[in-house]
């Protein structure tokens, strides 16, 4: 495979599983050095072992300010610069308006909104001109899906960061874009608090509504992230690319 990212350093939050892991894999195959995060030593070590010698892992919780503030020093043990930052860590929890409590609200806003904001803020000094930031949003922001109110609002905030960050980063020569996945076959449902039966029921009810009658695969997100990070996307800035198999636009 072409070593398009040879000599580049890529940092991915939430790189132990799902689309973060698939993206880490694609970047290592393309020659990059990849640094991933996850919440536990066990998941991080497992992912690093699977990714091979060009991968490094840091145990860091994107929902904890102390962990985010420690990141620059932790990263500087391995590198003095990052060429690509993929702010991807996250999950959803779903409940009706009546059922949402303060803990649910704070948990999702901490990891998705505060985590994304302060990760970018803290790592900006390591991002030189020519580097690229990619934020993971979601197709959900265009819809009113029952029980998704808090998750969708948090992702809408991240969507707004794409525009405001790109404006501030233009002069620094840093491109900022977003990727908006549709339903992707990852581990995400296992973090929702739903039972295995409820997960299977949700998936079965969603598939017939999808234009391709299938979930997307994590590698389909990874390939788009690599494109956004590459010089081929050099004129794409402040944009969000939908990778949702047509879900949002094909009716
Ligand atoms: N799957 C979908 O259909 C879909 C659609 C649209 C958007 N998204 C978004 O895509 C992103 C990735 O999700 P995924 O579907 O790939 O899910 P996944 O397979 O569950 O992977 C989530 C990743 O995030 C990490 N993570 C979770 N909470 C974290 C935290 N507090 N700090 C650091 N890392 C954390 C997990 O690592 P550890 O478990 O090791 O901590 C794991 O590596 C999320 O932002 C999600 O909202 C998913």
From TrEMBL:
<keyword id="KW-0560">Oxidoreductase</keyword>
<dbReference type="GO" id="GO:0016491">
    <property type="term" value="F:oxidoreductase activity"/>
</dbReference>
<dbReference type="InterPro" id="IPR002347">
    <property type="entry name" value="SDR_fam"/>
</dbReference>
<dbReference type="InterPro" id="IPR036291">
    <property type="entry name" value="NAD(P)-bd_dom_sf"/>
</dbReference>
<comment type="similarity">
    <text>Belongs to the short-chain dehydrogenases/reductases (SDR) family.</text>
</comment>
<protein>
    <submittedName>
        <fullName>NAD(P)-dependent dehydrogenase, short-chain alcohol dehydrogenase family</fullName>
    </submittedName>
</protein>
<dbReference type="Pfam" id="PF13561">
    <property type="entry name" value="adh_short_C2"/>
</dbReference>
<dbReference type="InterPro" id="IPR020904">
    <property type="entry name" value="Sc_DH/Rdtase_CS"/>
</dbReference>
<keyword id="KW-0520">NAD</keyword>
<keyword id="KW-0058">Aromatic hydrocarbons catabolism</keyword>
């Amino acid at each position: 495979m072409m070593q398009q990212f040879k000599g580049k350093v890529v940092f991915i939050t939430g790189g132990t599983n799902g689309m973060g892991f698939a993206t880490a894999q694609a970047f290592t195959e393309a020659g990059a050095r990849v640094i991933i995060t996850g919440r536990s030593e066990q998941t991080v070590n497992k992912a690093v072992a699977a990714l091979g010698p060009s991968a490094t892992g840091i145990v860091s919780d994107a929902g904890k300010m102390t962990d985010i503030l420690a990141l620059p020093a932790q990263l500087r043990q391995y590198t003095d610069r990052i060429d690509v930052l993929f702010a991807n860590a996250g999950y959803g929890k779903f409940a009706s308006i009546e059922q949402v409590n303060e803990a649910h609200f704070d948990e999702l806003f901490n990891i998705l909104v505060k985590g994304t904001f302060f990760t970018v803020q803290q790592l900006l000094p390591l991002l030189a001109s020519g580097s690229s930031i990619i934020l993971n949003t979601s197709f959900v922001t265009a819809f009113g899906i029952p029980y998704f109110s808090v998750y969708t609002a948090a992702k809408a905030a991240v969507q707004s960061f794409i525009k405001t960050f790109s404006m501030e980063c233009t002069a620094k020569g840093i491109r900022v874009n977003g990727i908006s996945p549709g339903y992707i076959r990852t581990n995400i449902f296992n973090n929702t608090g739903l039972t295995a039966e409820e997960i299977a029921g949700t998936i079965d009810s969603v598939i017939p509504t999808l234009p391709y009658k299938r979930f997307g695969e994590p590698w389909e997100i990874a390939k788009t992230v690599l494109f956004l990070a590459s010089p081929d996307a050099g004129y794409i800035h402040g944009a969000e690319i939908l990778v949702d198999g047509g879900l949002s636009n094909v009716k």
